[in-house]
Write a structure and sequence with these properties.
Distance between the termini: 35 Å
Helix content: 40-55%
Order of helices and strands: HHEHEHEEEHHEEEHEHHHHHH
Strand content: 5-15%
Strand order of the largest sheet: 2-5-8-1-9
Number of domains: 2
Oligomer: single chain
Radius of gyration: 20 Å
CATH architecture of the largest domain: 3-Layer(aba) Sandwich
CATH class of the largest domain: Alpha Beta
Largest sheet: 5 strands, parallel
Shape: globular
Structural class: alpha/beta
Length: 305
Amino acid sequence: MHNKIAEIFKQLNNILLGKEEQTQLALVCLLAGGHLLIEDLPGMGKTTLASALAQTLGLDYRRVQFTSDMLPADILGVSIFDSNKQQFKFHKGPIFSQVLLADEINRASPKTQSALLEAMEERQISLDSETYALPTPFFVIATQNPLDQAGTFPLPESQLDRFMMRIELGFPNMDAELQMLKGHFSLDKKQIIPAIINIADLQTMQATVGKIQASEAVLNYLLRLIHESRYSGISANPLSPRCSKILLQAAKAMAFIKQRDYLIPEDIQAVFVAVTDHRLAGSNGYKQSSKALSQTLLDNVDPLG
């Protein structure tokens, strides 16, 4: 099983050069059953990473380009009257895929953004008094541009909280960019990326992640971090009990990737910033250094108590 993980990383890192930490966090997020938000400037490889992840994991995916005039029905689907059968027929939207790539999600209006809320949390949608289950597994990988760019709408805290992690790609180093210029990296959108695993493999990995053991000492360390956010006054958006559960699940996925069946404090530290920075900053905090808030919590709390 861990041989497959190594193959996945090798393929992803050959596609997105110089971003080993980001590809690791993205895979951790999906193995933990979460949704991923990738924020950065245009042209940094956000969409490339999202599509490469979906194809490498052998999942059916759809890409939706979010725009300001998009309606919820463009994502969820719509009921159309069939005159022959004299009844309405539901036509499924692109959300009925195992991976939904929501490209530039913050260019859509708040009304359209909110259409994803139930789907991301409940893995189902409700339309016209009917409930429709989404495929299993179901992941949302969303990309967004910085809020100071024209034509963007901030994601509300309730929407941000649906994403297990938020990561940034950043600029590549000179060596990686040189390899890109030499043609060692292809941006050909028609390129087919082979699947390393199938759905059964992924579900087995996710089940194994859920069985990772956490000692009382490690759980106490996690809770001290959460409580530090609430009572230190470091942020106006302290971390919720739901964040505690999400942080634990993400740390377990990191331990699985590191080939351990138990948690250590370093697993929590490895995922802490990606899990908490967008929650601590909130919808109006992207211009602030939310990563600094997360790092301050890590610095203030001793793993040994």
